[in-house]
Amino acid sequence: GGSAMAAVRSPPTFLLLGAAGGGKSLLVRRLRHIRRARGAPGSRAPVPQVGTNLTDLRLPRKVTVRELGGCMGPIWPSYYSECSALLFVVDASNPTQVSSSCIQLLSVLSAAPLASVPVLVLFNKIDLPCYMSLVEMKSLFRMQDIVSCATQPITMLETSARDGTGLADVLQWLRTALKDPS
């Protein structure tokens, strides 16, 4: 007979990637909070993520969000094989980070294990006065070229993990990604 562990399917894993300081930790904390309480989260200052952080969300099916710190970029590929969907966070208030984020995104999209996983690009921190609009970000990122070359379905959303803007849309995207496993 087979082992009992083989019968238990682990929940799908969604990778949460992006440059350091983009707001990944606060984003996942807010999403977990919305799912749990539908209330306002505490205003604790986010702690930069060094390493990996696992968060379970119920959408209503359970998924695991694996947040990988921005400084871990070189080892991101070791997590691609377990990925069911990808969230890529870009700090829309930091123009100097845009080009490096674009290069990171292109590298992630070209990875064979991710060839068919749905991708959500989040332009975060739109609550800050210096943020670039979605039109500006798409232009700087050359999103039209990226989308036309990518094998994955790519969705883009503007979010503010701090004030909650766009987080309901993120949850909706996660639910949709769950219904359409690759």
UniProtKB/TrEMBL annotation:
Species per Swiss-Prot/TrEMBL record: Daphoenositta chrysoptera
Xref: PANTHER family: ADP-RIBOSYLATION FACTOR-LIKE PROTEIN 16
Keyword Thylakoid belongs to the record: no
Keywords: GTP-binding, Magnesium, Metal-binding, Nucleotide-binding
GO MF annotation terms: GTP binding; GTPase activity; metal ion binding
List of residues binding Mg(2+): 25
Residues at which GTP binds: 18-25, 70, 124-127
Pfam family, one: Arf
Name under which the protein is recorded: ARL16 protein
Source organism superkingdom: Eukaryota
Secretion signal, residue range per the UniProt entry: none
PROSITE patterns noted in UniProt: ARF
